[in-house]
Every structure is written in C-alpha cells, then in structure tokens.
Amino acid sequence: MRAVVTGGAGFIGSHLCERLLHENHDVVCVDNFLTSSPDNVQHLEGDRHFQLNHWDITQGLDMPGPVDAVLHLASPASPADYLKLPLETLRVGSAGTWHALDLAAAKGARFLLTSTSESYGDPLLHPQPESYWGNVNPVGPRSVYDEAKRFGEALTTAYRRSRGVDAKIVRIFNTFGPRMRADDGRAIPTFISQALRGEPITVTGDGSQTRSLCYVDDVVDGLLRMLTSDHGGPVNLGNPHEVSMLELAQWISKLARSRSEIALVPRPQDDPERRRPDITLARELLDWEPTVPVERGLCDTIADFRRRLGSGLLAERS
Ligand code: NAD
C-alpha cells in the first residue's frame, strides 16, 4: 500500500507513519509543521519507503503516482494550539479536508478522517455513543476546532455518498504517549513536564473533572483496523476507563518520583466536565479495544519526556 498521511509529523501521525513502515507500506508524510517539528520523523528519513513533504495542505494536495490510502490527520489538536490558531484550524478542517478528499477521489484511494470526541462538545450523555449528536456551542472559544471537525465529518460523508469515495470517520478521544509536546496545554504533558522540572503540578478547578486516556499505540491500531474495514463510521476510539485530573496528577507525580506539590488553578471556559467513549461499535466492528494499561503508557511517556528534557529537546515553543 502507498499511504499519504497528512499531519504525519505530528504526535499521532508520527506513530502512524512508523507503524505503516513497519508493516512494509510506502508512506508519504505531508506536513507544514504548524504544531509539530521534523524531529518527530527524523528517525524515519533514512528509510527509502518514507517520503517527507513539507507542505500546507490548504494550498491543495496533488501527488504523482498511485495512492491507496489517504489518512487525514492534519489539524491543530490541543486546545492551546487551536485557541492560538483559530483561522488555521478552521481552514485545515475545511479546505484541507476538501483537498485530502479530492486526492482520495482522484486516486480511487481509501480515506480516513481523524475526527474527535470534541464533536460531542460538552456532552449531556455519558458515555457518548456515535449516535449522540453532541452539545456544541458554535460561538464558544473551542468552536473553531469542534465545528471544523463536524464540517469535516459532513464533507467526508458527502464524498462517500455522492462521489463513492471509500471514506471513513473515527472519533478519537484523549490520546497520550511519547512525542507529545510539553507545552501543548493538555493535562498529561503539562503534569509530566512540571513533575520532572520540580514545578507545582497545576490541576484546574477542583480536579474532579474526568478524562479517558488511551495510549497512542492502541489508537494507531484502531486507525488501521478502521482503514481496512468495510465500515464508514463514525466509530469512537478511546479508553472507556475514566480518570479524574487530581488522580492523574497524583499518579504522574508518583511514577516520575517527583516532589512537586499539586496546585489548584482556575478552569478554562468551555472545559468539558466529563468525556468517555462508548466503544461498543469499535469492539463489534473492528474487534478493537485498548490493550495498553494507562500506567505502562504513562511510564513510557515519562521516560520519553525525561530523555528529551536531558537532551534539551523539550524547550518550550514560543
Ligand atoms: P498534532 O498537532 O501533534 O499533529 C497535527 C499535525 O498536523 C501537525 O504535525 C501539524 O503540523 C499538521 N498540520 C496542521 N495544519 C496543517 C496544514 N495546513 N498542512 C499540513 N500539515 C498541517 O496533533 P495530534 O495530537 O497528533 O492529532 C492528530 C489528529 O488526531 C488531529 O486531526 C486531531 O484532531 C486528531 N485527534 C487527536 C486527539 C489527541 O488526543 N491527540 C484526540 C482527538 C482527535
């Protein structure tokens, strides 16, 4: 298979490129490094089956030669990024998704959209099945991401229905693992870098809000199962086990053997109270469920952060 991975230099994308190469596929990674760095895929560049294209997909996406699959991951993903990059987020979710779908249509390739649990907004139903339509504030600060992804889902569905593209949608819930950026604003990288630097671990609100945390290898496995399945989705991919932010901070502090204290700080606007996937569909259609225990995933992630901190690669982005 020759696979195009948009956003392939990002956190999840770089693990996906690795896995595709490991399974003997050819990979074209297209990325403009808006929220990532070429460092994430530097180790793949010697592989003759890997090609890195520095390109902004909102400008169009042409590709010589055959393409069997387009895996569309390009988009700022963390709240800190999309709040800082609102127009870029809307553009890549709309024009970028359009170009990626056009490429799949032109090449007769399979297409996979990585949508998000944020399509459910601040959900009124727990856990969230794919049939739930969500509770999104269209003019709230997070709407640039939520609505871009919801538009992407509508566009993907329209290409599937009207152009016959074998297009699929997954809704990814919180994912963690090595290569997350220390400053991406999400709880795990923030807590780990604070714990390793000996700074206070900042938990927002009273820390009782929960998230479900899935290790990146499991998510990548789910993406590939979905790509090669006969289903269009949407299908949720995530870990149904919920962890409170306070528990998570205590857990990371212990695993990192940190002496940092835990400090409670105000919660951001529109921060969802809970999000938990109903993964019945993924179990039934893809025979998929998370296999990596959160504790093991946290240990690997802490080890990666420790290594980057030691080699100066964990500098804050400006
Ligand atoms: P990331 O920010 O690490 O990776 C996104 C990549 O897209 C980056 O490398 C960035 O440079 C690239 N990109 C952005 N705009 C681009 C453009 N116009 N042209 C080319 N490249 C562009 O984020 P991630 O965590 O790896 O997320 C990957 C995908 O998975 C995203 O679509 C995100 O919405 C989705 N997702 C992630 C999570 C999660 O927990 N990480 C949860 C739900 C959904």
TrEMBL record:
Pfam families, alphabetized: Epimerase
Source taxon at top rank: Bacteria
EC numbers, comma separated: 4.1.1.35
Enzyme class: lyase
GO-annotated molecular function: UDP-glucuronate decarboxylase activity
Keywords, in A-Z order: Decarboxylase, Lyase, NAD
Domain NAD-dependent epimerase/dehydratase: 4-238
InterPro entries in alphabetical order: Epimerase_deHydtase (IPR001509), NAD(P)-bd_dom_sf (IPR036291), UXS-like (IPR044516)
SUPFAM superfamilies per record: NAD(P)-binding Rossmann-fold domains
Cofactor: NAD(+)
Protein's UniProt keywords contain NAD: yes
Identification of the protein by name: UDP-glucuronic acid decarboxylase family protein
